[in-house]
Predict the 3D structure of the following.
Amino acid sequence: MSKMSELSQVLDDLIACGEKMIQTANAIKECFSDEAETEPAKTEKPAKKEAKAPEPETPSYSKEDVRAILAAKANEAGGQFKAQVKAIVKKYADGGSLTNVPAESYSDLVKEVEGLKDA
């Protein structure tokens, strides 16, 4: 195996490891957020019929989370989504890079990137 193909394999393994770490961290976060939401509900009085259902919370992402998600999607399927990911980032950023995307747009950006599917 040549050095370049060996390096490529190591980088692919590193990316896969990072993606798995993000999935694990999100799963742990969901476990704790589910517990925090269900415990107070037990002590609360029943809600009136007139009360509206609470709107689902949009997840908050750090720049590092978004960067990892974008990198994972761009490298998925042999880089098939790379151009689409760049176009979506450009749509949300003034300068065309993640640095220029406002933090309040991270969840919308991630939602749109995660919506990319094989054509």
